[in-house]
């Protein structure tokens, strides 16, 4: 059976897992495109993307163009004579010139059931808005974001405990398998394309660090979903005595306490730190003090009882 010569474009951990599946397959990844190196932390240390690290370890040539419209880069890409380009969480819009460069086209693995949650944060959005399921869509790419024809879908349940991290891991397993199945269908010319219904399009918004500050005027149920959606990044937090305290796990207590202020600590014990919201109670079970490790509330509440004093409005 024919094997495909692949150019892979991706950046994040989700991308790297799919790249690894291709490397382990009988197909040949002949080159990788990933975002330029970034600097982070106090020392502004240069870090490589997970895709770049994996490519180096497997001796795959790497491109890190700043501008995908650069003609020199495009000529180099064309000279590779690849059969297909596969894009997974790359982070940049691919120009039409590149999309038309490969005999078998350019396909994208997207972690949602398109057309729901097009855009930058499909996994986070599915948790934040309380979806019961999500999935993987593989599409033939066009020059508009996530709007190409669908060539494969797989569904995945979302549990009430799923965070973005745990759901990503579920979707990786589904996506790897689905991607290899699609490549076999491309080779055997058995792909069936389906147009997306534009009436059902919902866009996911980009997430910023400032969005992670908990607003107690929201309902407890919404706050609990926000905490799971923003785990592992940017991680929800609240301010107490000028300290930013990160919240990693919480539950909802379905009780209404109208005699307490919104944002008031109404109970603080081994079971959690209970905070009154605009509707029902948010019970914080795991948190992280500045410079410390993530801890269960039951393990720190005795030593920090004065910090989380009942009656404090945060």
From TrEMBL:
EC identifiers of the protein: 2.1.2.9
UniProt GO MF annotations: methionyl-tRNA formyltransferase activity
Residue stretches making up the Formyl transferase C-terminal domain: 206-304
Enzymatic class: transferase
Catalytic activity: L-methionyl-tRNA(fMet) + (6R)-10-formyltetrahydrofolate = N-formyl-L-methionyl-tRNA(fMet) + (6S)-5,6,7,8-tetrahydrofolate + H(+)
GO cellular component entries: cytosol
This protein's record includes keyword Amino-acid biosynthesis: no
Ligand binding ((6S)-5,6,7,8-tetrahydrofolate): 112-115
Alphabetical keyword list: Protein biosynthesis, Transferase
Boundaries of every Formyl transferase N-terminal domain copy: 5-183
Function (record text): Attaches a formyl group to the free amino group of methionyl-tRNA(fMet). The formyl group appears to play a dual role in the initiator identity of N-formylmethionyl-tRNA by promoting its recognition by IF2 and preventing the misappropriation of this tRNA by the elongation apparatus.
The family this protein is said to belong to: Belongs to the Fmt family.
Protein name in the entry: Methionyl-tRNA formyltransferase
């Amino acid at each position: 059976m024919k094997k495909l010569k692949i150019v892979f474009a991706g950046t994040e951990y989700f991308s790297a897992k799919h790249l690894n599946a291709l490397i382990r397959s009988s197909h040949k990844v002949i080159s990788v495109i990933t975002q330029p190196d970034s600097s982070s932390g106090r020392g502004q240390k240069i870090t490589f993307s997970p895709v770049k690290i994996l490519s180096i370890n497997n001796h795959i040539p790497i491109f890190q163009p700043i501008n995908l419209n650069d003609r020199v880069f495009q000529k180099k890409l064309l000279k590779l004579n690849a059969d297909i380009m596969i894009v997974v969480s790359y982070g940049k819009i691919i120009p039409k010139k590149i999309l038309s460069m490969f005999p078998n086209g350019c396909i994208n693995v997207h972690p949602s059931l398109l057309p729901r949650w097009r855009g930058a944060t499909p996994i986070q959005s599915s948790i934040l808005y309380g979806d019961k399921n999500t999935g993987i869509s593989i599409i033939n790419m066009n020059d508009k974001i996530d709007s190409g024809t669908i060539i494969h879908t797989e569904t995945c349940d979302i549990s009430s405990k799923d965070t973005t991290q745990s759901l990503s891991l579920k979707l990786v397993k589904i996506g790897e398998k689905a991607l290899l199945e699609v490549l076999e269908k491309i080779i055997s010319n058995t792909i069936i394309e389906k147009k997306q219904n534009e009436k059902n399009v919902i866009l996911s918004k980009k997430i910023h660090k400032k969005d992670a500050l908990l607003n107690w005027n929201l309902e407890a149920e919404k706050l609990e979903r926000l905490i799971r959606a923003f785990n592992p990044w940017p991680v929800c937090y609240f301010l107490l005595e000028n300290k930013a305290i990160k919240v990693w796990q919480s539950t909802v207590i379905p009780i209404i306490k109208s005699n307490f202020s919104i944002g008031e600590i109404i109970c603080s014990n081994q079971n959690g730190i209970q905070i009154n919201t605009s509707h029902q109670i948010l019970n914080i079970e795991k948190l992280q003090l500045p410079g410390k490790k993530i801890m269960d509330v039951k393990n720190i509440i005795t030593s920090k009882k004065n910090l989380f004093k009942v009656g404090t409005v945060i």
